[in-house]
Amino acid sequence: MKRLFYVALFFALFSTAVLGADEPSEWAKKEIYNGADKGVIHKDIMCNYKEQINRRDFCKLVVHYYYKNMGYSSLEDFMQKHLKEELAKYEYKFQDLDKNNKDDMYVFVANILELVNGKSNTKFAPNDKLTREQAAKIILGLNEKLSGNPSNKIDTKYSLYKVAFADNDKISNWARYYVYSVNRLGIMKGVGGNKFAPKKYYTREQACVTVTRVNKKEEPLYGTFLDD
Question: Where in the chain are the domains?
Answer without folding.
Answer: 54-128, 130-228
